[in-house]
Amino acid sequence: MTEKNEIMEKIVSLCKRRGFIFQGSEIYGGLAGIYDFGPRGVELLNNIKKSWWKANVYDKENYYGLDSGMFKHPKTWEASGHLGGFSDPLSECKNCNTRIRVDKELAKIGVEADEKMTEKVLNELFDQNRDKIKCPTCGKKDFSSVRAFNLLVKSNLGDFTSSGSEPVYLPGEACQGIYLNYKNIVSSMNPKIPFGVAQIGKVFRNEISPRNFLFRTREFEQADTQLFIHPNQNKEPYEEIKKDRWKWYLSLGIDEKKLRFKQHENLVFYAKDAWDIEYEFPTGFDEVEGIHDRSDYDLSQHMKFSGVDLNYIDQETTEKYIPWILETSMGLGRVFLAVLCNAYYEDQMEGDTRVVLKLIPHLAPIKVAVFPLLKNKPELVAKAREVYVTLKKEFGAVVFDDNGNIGKRYRRQDEIGTPFCVTVDFETIEKEAGITLRDRDTGEQKRLQIDELIRHIKSILA
User: Fold this and answer.
1) Could you please report the per-residue DSSP string of 226-249?
2) Distance of CA 321 to the CA centre of its chain
3) How confident is the model at residue 2 (pLDDT cuts 50, 70, 90)?
């Protein structure tokens, strides 16, 4: 096992041990590609969402938030091209029936391929390299031909006969709700072009081979923005969006050396340009966000299939046109995993090896942990509870811990990334010397009065 794989295994283990991520339906043996966010994980995820929402709605004057319904009219997916073209290339082992995603297996051996290629081209590439690709389960090299496997997940909403004659689908991407509500937003908000819409929504995909923990799953959340612009005025805002999104990842504390842009070589027919922001996971660089210049394809398709006029009319010039769209689309699970990987460290402190998540403070699931030095001293516990209540009113994500010796308590908080640990000791009571504040990253301690402590924490979380 490589060192990078060992690091990834340690992160996965920490996620379960400390309540970040659990396998979905684990008591029944689990469900492939489905994960649940535990008490610490949901806090970190929500903090990432808050940061994204602030950057893309509150910090901009021309963006609007949306939360569209999960189910959409079936014609939505026909218009968007998902019924005909939303697929991954699948091949099946003839010996054990394990399914593989062909483009990913070809990429592992250095052959350039992606899901946008035709079945014919992918079959040609696969046939040329069959002797180099083994079944991950049985090790055989006997595979079926490549076929396109549609990723949409069917449902029977409203089909009381269960005939399946009019299927609906769980969302294959979150952004379609923005396009379906474009006319409503224009009518109700009277925005001037350019304007944007931001949304966080659930997505479901019938992935052939879920893998790499949270990286490729069958249920996840996307955070999308769609900027509606004047036709052919796409170059400058597109570059600004790329810069803006890069800066946001740095605001999460992510090491800039572990980020890179990668331009798509094979564009879908309607796209003018497409770039990915990639993060260097322990398994290598891979996409966390796509930035796409989609031209007028989406609104044109929905206007064609719905029969509803989706033209924008400029109130000052009376010009009428279908806006072009610049999109950002981020997988929240992937960003969550990138944040964890970036924050994970093993170092030496007080002669011991410790595991610490050096999360930037505003993302940390717990902001402050409060300890009485000893749990069997009622006066210490009472004072520590008093401090805990005060801090919880100020910061919300505060915990009280009197379980085990003080060193073990520090280590537990280090592992979940808590930036501030506060200890109430005898000097706090007998000398009114304030509390002891410990720095997570250095282990250094200093004494502060409660009001000083609150100001100090607020200045760092701001």
Assistant:
1) EEEE-TT--HHHHHHHHHHHHHHH
2) 34
3) low
In 3D space, the residue among 257, 284, 271 whose CA is nearest the CA of residue 104 turns out to be 284
Determine if the peptide bond prior to 378 is cis (ω within 30°).
no
Q: 195-204 and 63-66 as β-strands: parallel, antiparallel, unpaired? A: parallel
CATH top-level class of 38-74+164-340: alpha beta
CA–CA separation, 405 and 239 (whole Å): 53
Q: Do residues 91 and 126 touch, judged by C-beta distance below 8 A?
A: yes
Q: Which residues contact 460 (CB under 8 A, 6 or more apart)?
A: 361, 419
Residues 25, 34: contact at Cβ < 8 Å? yes
- Whether the pLDDT of residue 169 is over 60: the answer is yes
Residue type, 383: K
- Which amino acid is it at 185? I
Q: Locate tokens 């966390």: which residue?
A: 288
Structure tokens at 329: 């689309």
CA–CA–CA angle 15, 18, 20 (5° rounding): 45
From residue 135, how far is each of 82, 93, 130, 285 by CA, in Å? 29, 6, 11, 24
DSSP 433: -
Neighbours of 220 (CB within 10 A): 22
**230 pLDDT higher than 90:** yes
Strand partners, 244: none
Say which DSSP state 28 is in: G
What confidence tier does 118 reach under pLDDT thresholds 50, 70, 90?
Answer: confident
Q: What is the pLDDT of residue 114?
A: 75
Cα(399)–Cα(421) distance, rounded to whole angstroms?
A: 10
Average pLDDT, integer, range 264-286:
90
Cα of 142 vs its chain's centroid, Å: 36
- In degrees and rounded to multiples of 5, residue 303 shows phi and psi of -65, -40
Give the separation between CA 89 and CA 146, rounded to whole angstroms.
6
- At position 287, the amino acid (one-letter code) is E
Q: 295: phi > 0 → left, psi -120 to 50 → alpha, else beta; which?
A: left
pLDDT of residue 164: 60
Q: Are 243 and 362 in contact (CB under 8 A)?
A: no
> What are the pLDDT digits (tens) for 389-402?
999 999 999 999 99
CATH superfamily of 366-461: Anticodon-binding domain (3.40.50.800)
Half-sphere exposure of 454 (CA within 13 A, CB side): 12
The model carries a pTM of 0.89
The mean pLDDT of 405-418, rounded to a whole number, is 95
